[in-house]
Amino acid sequence: MSKRELKKFLSQLSKEQLEEQIIEIYEKFPPVKTYFNFVFNPNEENLIKDAKLKISNEFFPIRGKRPKMRRSVAQKFIKHFISLGVDPFLIADLMLYTIEIAQILSSEKVIKQEPFFKGVLSSFSQSISFMIEKGILYDFSARVEDIKDVSIAQNWNNSDEFIAILERFEY
Hints:
Oligomer: single chain
Largest sheet: none
Order of helices and strands: HHHHHHHHH
Strand content: under 5%
Number of strands: 0
Distance between the termini: 45 Å
């Protein structure tokens, strides 16, 4: 069904029928329920706070287990928040937080897995691109510089690439 056909169909329904359709969609599809819950109660600060807690738990588990260090957990939150239309400043903050928490772990524990460093670099590149797209990179310039400096200070083998990313975008 095209958008035009949908509009025509909806215009033929009464108010009660429209309400029934929306409630049925709300109950049947969890993403619709999530969207409506966000639209009518956009508590962005709490969403970001909960996401940060879950991300930090990936790197510093509460129950004393080994850190899983899954970047995918953060990526799912970021993608979800972008689709909901969360404030770009909050999304950028979450993106940088993910990188910063990974660097804190790296400062406290020797990490030998190359994919860890590659993943952090990828997250850094994506966050820079996102902030440029939204026109907010300047607002986060101090944190971005700190991330680059930490990668150098911790002797990451890809620290040159952090520098290159920033030089490429010349903020």
